[in-house]
Amino acid sequence: MSLQRLFYPLPLLTLVLALLLALPAPSRGQDAWNTYQDTDPRLLYQGGTWQTFQVAAALGGSLTATADPGATLTVYFAGTAVQLVYSLGPEGRTFSAQVDDGPLSTVYSYGDRYSHGQTLAFTDLSAGTHVLTVTNGEGALWIEAVQVQGHCWTDLRRPLRLPRRNQLLSALSRNSSSVSATISTAN
User: Fold this and answer.
1) What value, to the nearest 5°, has the Cα angle with vertex 11 and ends 5 and 17?
2) Rounded distance, CA 117 to CA 114, Å?
3) By CB atoms within 10 Å of each CB, which of 81, 129, 139, 140 scores lowest?
């Protein structure tokens, strides 16, 4: 049996493993909340100046804040529930949050003193992809984390694109010859 035939499945296995690694990790259970800290790149901060502060009392030890009206946080996710973890404080006023085109929730984030770990939850969502949009009104907005019963992506408008069949076959044939050549020269 030739080495090329023996190791032909290796490129296919490599490709399958690469595709599996590109997919999100499986859920830890239907009721499990996956936490995405304020500094996670899947949380998209736009339309204003956002700064990250180290705050030991905040979930994960930091929070990302803005005082710019209209500044937004956008989170693309797949799942059945999402909750925003935020802080209250003397500079807080109002912000709004919405999932997809659902009802707009307005939150008053003022507090006489700083208080961390507040949550705004959207539950009982249909299974599938959704967008959480949080918009600052007046005052400061402090984001500690986003928790999802499911998983976040950077931007669902740009889904994972799999190669077409002919591109896949071409890549496999190129890789299989280079893999067998590498293996055969090693002997």
Assistant:
1) 140
2) 10
3) 129
Distance of alpha carbon 7 from alpha carbon 13, whole angstroms: 10
Q: How far is CA 167 from CA 87, 91, 164, 174, 175, in A?
A: 49, 55, 5, 11, 12
**Protein fold of 32-154:** Jelly Rolls (2.60.120)
Q: Within its chain, how far is the Cα of 86 from the centroid?
A: 17
Q: Kindly list the domain boundaries of the chain, sorted by start residue.
A: 32-154
User: What are the CA-CA distances from residue 66 to residues 73, 92, 105 (Å)?
Assistant: 10, 10, 19
Per-residue pLDDT tens for 72-83?
A: 999 999 999 999
Residue 66, judged by CB atoms within 10 A of its CB (0-12, 13-18, 19+), counts as buried
100: which DSSP letter? T
Please calculate the CA angle 169-170-173 and round it to the nearest 5 degrees. 85
pLDDT digits (tens, 9 = 90+) for 127-143: 999 999 999 999 999 99
Residue listed under structure tokens 């901060």: 45
Q: What is the dihedral of CA 166, 167, 168, 171, to 10 degrees?
A: 120
